[in-house]
Amino acid sequence: MIANRVALDRLTTPARITLPPSFNLCGLFVDRHVEEGRSDKAMARGRTWTLSFGELSVAVCKMGNVLKSLGVKPGDRVMLFARDTPSFYVGFLGTIRVGAVVIPTNTFLRSADYGYMLADSGSKVIIAADSAMSEIEPALSHPGIAVEHRIAIDRKHPGWVHLDELLAEASADCPIIATTPNSPCFWLYSSGSTGSPKASVHEHKDMVYTSQYYAVETLGVTEDEVIFSAPKLFFAYGIGNSLSFQLYTGCTAILLEDRPTAENTLDMIERFQPTLYFGVPTLYAAQVALMEKGRPVNMQQTRMCLSGGEPLPPAIMERWNRLTGVEVLDGIGSSEGLHIYAQNLPGHIKPGSAGRPVPGYRLRVIDSEGNEAPVGQPGELAVQGESFARFYWNKPERTASAWTKDGWFRSGDTMYRDQDGYYFFCGRGDDMLKVGGMWVAPFEIESALAAHPTVIEAAVIGAPDENELIKPKAFCVLRDPACACPDLAKELIEFTRQRLAPFKYPRWIEFIDELPKTASGKIQRFKLRALYPNSDPKSGQEPS
Question: Is the pTM of this model over 0.70?
Answer without folding.
Answer: yes
